[in-house]
Amino acid sequence: MRIALFTETFLPKVDGIVTRLKHTVEQLQRLGDQVLVFSPDGGLTEYQGAQIHGVSGLAFPLYPELKLALPRPSIGEALEQFKPDLIHVVNPAVLGLAGIYYAKTLDIPLMASYHTHLPKYLEHYGLGMLEGLMWELLKAMHNQARINLATSTAMQQELTEHGIERVQVWQRGVDTDLFRPELASRAMRDRLSQGHPDAPLLLYIGRLSAEKEIDCIKPVLESIPGARLALVGDGPYREELEKHFDGTNTNFVGYLAGEELASAYASADVFVFPSRTETLGLVLLEAMAAGCPVVAANSGGIPDIVTNGENGYMFDPQDENGAIAATQRIFATDALRETLRLNARAEAERWGWRGATQQLQKFYQEILTETRLPFAA
Fold this sequence. Notes:
Number of strands: 16
Shape: globular
CATH architecture of the largest domain: 3-Layer(aba) Sandwich
Strand content: 15-25%
CATH class of the largest domain: Alpha Beta
CATH superfamily of the largest domain: Glycogen Phosphorylase B
Largest sheet: 8 strands, mixed
CATH topology of the largest domain: Rossmann fold
Radius of gyration: 21 Å
Order of helices and strands: EHEEEEEHEHEHHEHEHEHEHEHEHEEHHH
Distance between the termini: 24 Å
Strand order of the largest sheet: 3-4-2-1-7-8-9-10
């Protein structure tokens, strides 16, 4: 198959969507498909054998790391030259509109996938009154597709309830070769804890942005005597978070990658994740693969990953003491923490990227098989 992939974010940006897409592109190419990626221009022209068509864009005011790449005629020219069997738009917003337009104009079958819970993000940027309008826009875009993919059963249900049709679940995936318990090290604990490797170590990895609700980790940190917190990543909310955590044992580590990132997961005692807006929560799977017990909000796609009390703990995000109680429970006994580590790793081992990509291929084939049948948008 020849697949044209339109995405609003790709390498060199670092986030959960990019992680899924880079593994998907790599696996598709290995499985014999050809992929052409349309994304905001990041200076790359090729990745794992797939060509990248970078489109220049402007920084998004609310999130400067995110570029808004405006559609332009060169996209149509590249598509006509590539001759894709199918167009897959990821989180259609700006650049994705070009994918939808050319799918209709060139009569190419269209798939869409939903990864970022934009309607729920709005409230964290003071734009909650626009949530209804956002759902209408998403419905108008996604219902052009023959199949819409969500990354969890909770998101499948929510999209369906808001009028988005033909929604299927694209199974989760994680790199269990990279993220593994064996990479735990005292040297990494020393680095993350700023020279206090024997102290209880809490970890957050991901974007430092308002919708992640990282500020909620502060009372958890303060409830564990002598605990340290490492925040790995960066983003537009960093300055506010530095003020919020001022005077606490918090280390703003910045970005880590590769085995350093995997070692950070494996070396911490607890991964704390308070976000309520996750369509899946890929970082939770990475933490679990590394054998790090997780404490996460019982919201969005997280219950698809975490089995409460078995491979981690979930808490009610409306309960101010929920995350505190869950984290204290993990620190209660070494035996419990070790059981959670083993169970977390066992759960992650069920979800490799090859299987997730082969499932995606089946969806692609289903769409191509149906193209000869009448289709009502």
